[in-house]
Design a protein that fits this description.
With 518 residues, this protein is α+β, with helices and mostly antiparallel strands. Helix content is 32%, strand content 18%. The protein has 2 domains: 107 residues, Pdz3 Domain; 268 residues, 2-enoyl-CoA Hydratase, Chain A, domain 1 (Alpha-Beta Complex).
Length: 518
């Protein structure tokens, strides 16, 4: 199983690993000395500080019209917060503001712990929502059952409520997140509903009550068949590869953009650059013709690791790259003081403005010397074009592919590197990101906010909400590893190029029939 609460847990883990207890508390002397702040309750005070932080940090609000619109709404919001007496309702209120940005990185952390959960999980993929995970044999008869209501309300109503407060890049991203959120007792408390028992209404009108349990009690029974025999089943590693010599295929599973260099506090982790070098060396020695990079379980991390991989697949010097627009703010400078020294055309950066990262004078002075030895204490790239992999290249994309995973896949698409198979991405090709954390002083509410806008190389497609694969394949078929079957049928060692071009019989099992079954 893709571990329960993996998405939310990853966010909390990232928060702890990156910043520990040093999340800054935001203040603004001008706001805190105002009459509105002095006369307001704790919720009104933190609302004023949150709006100020958001409008002065998030790239969307670098646009004066966008900023003015939210600031005009602030007075009405201030009055509405006068009626709030419960911290959960306040967090919901702030979450609606964050979610309206369609930015999965800007959110309110409205849970404080993940100890209590409801031991069922739904599949939400546009089809009838069904139960795919339960906690024990006691509830195993529920696997595959369609759910039409929860806690006495139609499921579609619950999802509409959730869509207003769950920050997501797009609807695919929302479906990935909300199925995890629905397991959290704190999420239901936030919605003002029972957080001890989850009452499910099934399609046959049966009602089943599922009591909450401690997370440590989870013993997963899945709708999906055993991972045994599935090459693409999730492995409990950051990255791994297996070479299938008979098929002349190297299968690489890339589950997180993290390694020893990105997380130096974990010296036991492998270095990704060394891992990639060793994999490519072994592929070359064994004459491997096809590389499969599986990103279906990858929700992101440090995008530098994606650049390392690409340097072995395409000329690093010739790669068309993302534009990175940076919103300069007081919060950003509290994390990265060097921005106070950065300049553009000799002038210091102005708080509130957006800048193309390549316009910084410090960036202009930086040029890669492709002939000089690289610093081994940093990520080492492949600058030798003779070592670039020349065979077939396939990326597997899933609904969970997000953030840096989407960056890597989009760079591949826009540079014509390999093909993408699988499902539509949960991440948007051009998106906001690079999270900053902060705490509101009066309620202790922790928030996240993006300070960068990543713009894909192909500017003609910059407004695309999704990255659609070249070949759509069901990655969650309970009976077959369809994506691996497709790869073997089209790129196995015994399949020649003419046969691949002439024979499209594989389409029936991998695309047409699953679509009809759905």
């Amino acid at each position: 199983m893709r571990y329960i609460l993996s998405i939310i847990g990853a966010l909390l883990i990232g928060l702890t690993l990156s910043y520990g207890q040093n999340i800054p508390t935001i203040h603004n002397e001008q706001i805190e000395s105002s009459r509105e702040y002095q006369d307001g309750n704790d919720f009104q005070r933190d609302l004023l500080l949150y709006i100020d932080m958001l409008t002065n940090t998030h790239p969307y609000y670098a646009d004066a019209e966008h900023r003015a619109k939210l600031e005009r709404q602030a007075r009405k919001m201030y009055k509405e917060c006068e009626k709030i007496t419960d911290i959960n309702k306040f967090k919901v209120y702030l979450a609606t503001i964050a979610a309206s940005l369609n930015d999965g990185h800007t959110a309110i952390l409205y849970w404080s712990k993940l100890d209590r959960v409801f031991p069922v999980r739904l599949a939400l993929d546009g089809n009838a929502p069904v139960i795919i995970d339960v906690t024990s044999e006691e509830h195993s008869e529920l696997l595959g059952e369609e759910v039409v209501g929860i806690n006495g309300k139609p499921l579609r109503h619950i999802l509409r409520m959730a869509r207003d407060i769950v920050s997501a890049d797009n609807d695919v991203n929302f479906e990935n997140l909300v199925k995890e959120y629905l397991m959290l007792t704190e999420f239901w408390a936030l919605m003002g509903m029972n957080d001890d028992v989850l009452s499910l209404t099934l399609a046959d009108d049966r009602c089943v009550d599922i009591p909450a349990i401690n997370k440590s009690e989870l013993k997963i029974v899945q709708l999906q068949r055993s991972a045994e025999g599935r090459v693409t089943a999730q492995r409990g590693v950051l990255f791994d590869y297996t070479i299938y010599e008979d098929e002349s295929i190297c299968y690489m599973q890339f589950n997180q953009f993290a390694d020893r260099l990105t997380h130096p506090q974990y010296p036991q982790l492998a270095r990704f650059d060394e891992f990639t070098r060793d994999m490519m060396t072994e592929m070359n020695e064994k004459g491997i013709r096809t590389l499969v990079v599986d990103l279906q379980y990858n929700s992101g991390g440090n995008s530098m690791l994606g650049d390392v991989l690409l340097s072995w697949l395409y000329s690093h010097k010739d790669t068309k790259r993302y534009a990175v627009e940076v919103r300069v703010s007081e919060l950003l400078c509290s994390y990265y003081p060097q921005y106070r020294e950065y300049t553009v055309d000799g002038k210091h950066l102005e708080i509130g403005n957006m800048y193309d990262g390549m316009d910084f004078d410090q960036s202009k002075d930086y040029k890669i010397d492709y002939s000089a030895p690289q610093d081994p204490a940093k990520c080492v790239f492949n600058f030798d074009n003779d070592k670039i992999f020349k065979g077939n290249l396939i990326f597997i994309q899933g609904k969970d592919s997000f953030s840096s995973a989407t960056l890597l896949l989009t760079l591949a698409r826009d540079n014509g590197i390999g093909i993408i198979v699988g499902e539509t991405s949960g991440g948007s090709p051009s998106h906001y990101g690079d999270i900053l954390y902060c705490t509101l002083p009066n309620t202790g509410t922790i928030t996240t906010v993006s300070h960068k806008h990543f713009v894909r190389p192909n500017r003609e497609l910059v407004t695309d909400e999704y990255l659609v694969p070249d070949v759509v394949i069901d990655l969650n078929n309970p009976n077959n590893d369809l994506v691996w079957e497709w790869i073997l049928n089209n790129y196995g060692a015994n399949i020649d190029a003419k046969q691949r071009d002439d024979d499209d019989s594989y389409l029936w099992d991998t695309i047409y029939r699953p679509s009809m079954d759905n």
